[in-house]
Amino acid sequence: MKNVTDFCLSWGYWPSAGSFGFNTDILSTNLINLSVVLGVLIFFGKGVCASCLDLLDNRKQRILNTIRNSEELRGGAIEQLEKVRARLRKVQMEADRFLANGYSEIEKEKLNLINSSYKTLEQLESYKNETIQFEQQRVINQVRQRVFQQALRVALGTMNSCLNGELHLRTISANINMLGAIKEIRD
C-alpha cells in the first residue's frame, strides 16, 4: 500500500500546476470527490457489512422464535375454543331437554357462556398480537442500536489505524496536484 501511495504522490509523476487557485468546474471536482468517497466507503465498509449480516441473522432468529411462541399461544387458544365448543354442545343438549320442559333459564346461561367464551378468545388474540408487535419493535430497536454501534466502532477503529498525519498530508497534496494537472490540461 505504501509503494502505491508513494508512486501516486511522487513529484515526477504529477505535473506542476503552476499556481494555486479554486477550481470552479463543478463536474470535475465532484467526480474527484465522489471517487475518493467511494474508495473510502468500500475500504472501510467491508467489516460493517459482515457484522450487519450477523445482526440480521440474529434478528431473524428472534422473530422466528417470537412467531413460534405466538403459534403456540394460538394452538392453546384453539384448544380452549374446542373445549368451549364441547361445553357449548353439552349445554345445548341440556337446553334442548329443559326447553321441552319450558325452562328458559338454561337459554340465558348458554348465551352468557357463548359471550364470555368469545370475549376470552378476543382477549387472547389481542394479547397475542400485542406481544408479537412489542417483540418485533424491541428486536428492531436492538438491531438498529447494535448496527449503529458496530459500524461506528469499525469505522473509528479503521480510521485510527489507517489514517495518520503523514498519510493525510500526502493525500491532500496528491489531490491538490491532481486538480492542478486537470486545470493545466483544460487550459
From TrEMBL:
One of its GO terms (molecular function) is proton-transporting ATP synthase activity, rotational mechanism. This is ATP synthase subunit b, chloroplastic. It is a single-pass membrane protein. The lineage of its organism: Eukaryota, Viridiplantae, Streptophyta, Embryophyta, Tracheophyta. It comes from the Eukaryota. Its main location: membrane. The chain crosses the membrane at residues 31-56. It holds the Pfam family ATP-synt_B. Residues 53-101 form a coiled coil. In plastids the F-type ATPase is also known as CF(1)CF(0). HAMAP family: ATP_synth_b_bprime. F(1)F(0) ATP synthase produces ATP from ADP in the presence of a proton or sodium gradient. F-type ATPases consist of two structural domains, F(1) containing the extramembraneous catalytic core and F(0) containing the membrane proton channel, linked together by a central stalk and a peripheral stalk. During catalysis, ATP synthesis in the catalytic domain of F(1) is coupled via a rotary mechanism of the central stalk subunits to proton translocation. The keyword Chloroplast applies. F-type ATPases have 2 components, F(1) - the catalytic core - and F(0) - the membrane proton channel. F(1) has five subunits: alpha(3), beta(3), gamma(1), delta(1), epsilon(1). F(0) has four main subunits: a(1), b(1), b'(1) and c(10-14). The alpha and beta chains form an alternating ring which encloses part of the gamma chain. F(1) is attached to F(0) by a central stalk formed by the gamma and epsilon chains, while a peripheral stalk is formed by the delta, b and b' chains. Keywords: ATP synthesis, CF(0), Chloroplast, Coiled coil, Hydrogen ion transport, Ion transport, Membrane, Plastid, Thylakoid, Transmembrane, Transmembrane helix, Transport. It comes from Lomatogonium perenne. GO terms for cellular component: chloroplast thylakoid membrane; proton-transporting ATP synthase complex. InterPro entries: ATP_synth_b/b'su_bac/chlpt (IPR002146). Belongs to the ATPase B chain family. It is found in: Membrane; Plastid, Chloroplast thylakoid membrane.
